[in-house]
Amino acid sequence: MEVGRAHQDVAYVAVFVSPAERAAETVAWFLRGAGQQLPQEHSVVPGLAGKDQTEGSPEGMAIGIRSLLEQLPEGGRGLAISHTPFVERAALGLTGHEVEPMRECEGLLITLRDDGDIEIEELRLPGSTAG
pLDDT by residue (tens digit) across 33-61? Predict the structure, then answer.
């Protein structure tokens, strides 16, 4: 809930979660902390749990994340909830660079720029040695 409170100023137009029950629980707590309701646009995305033809390869994760980003309206922000190691695999597939394993409540801010390039910011807890 604290992570959601830290992002109260962001309105999400779409929410995507992996099929894992804990992903739905995580998004519920996140949105509750942010004081937001689940947006009308929301869905369970099997690829966020590596349940795709590539079994969660970095390349497969990158394709899946790009397709989610392309579903957002211009200037819109979406929230995707997945879990380690899929978050790290997505970063590798999108940028070609490995990120250190995520801890609970850590994640990535992924931005699709106008030129089609991807920008990734690691969202780490205070005191984290990674990033």
Answer: 889 999 999 999 999 999 999 999 999 99
Exposure string (b/e) for 40-70, b if CB count within 10 Å is 16 or more? eebeebebbbbebebebebebbbbbbbebbe
Q: Report the relative pairing of strands 107-112 and 118-123 from DSSP bridges.
A: antiparallel
The CA R_g of the chain, rounded to the nearest whole Å, is: 14
Helix axes 58-71, 86-95, angle to 10 degrees: 80
Listed residue (118, 48, 110) closest to 84, CA to CA: 48
Contact predicate 46/111, CB 8 Å = no
Judge whether 45 and 71 are in contact, CB under 8 Å.
no
CA separation for the pair 23, 21 (Å, rounded): 5
The domain made up of 2-123 is a member of CATH 3.40.50.1240: yes
Distance of CA 70 to CAs 4, 33, 118, 125, Å? 24, 27, 12, 28
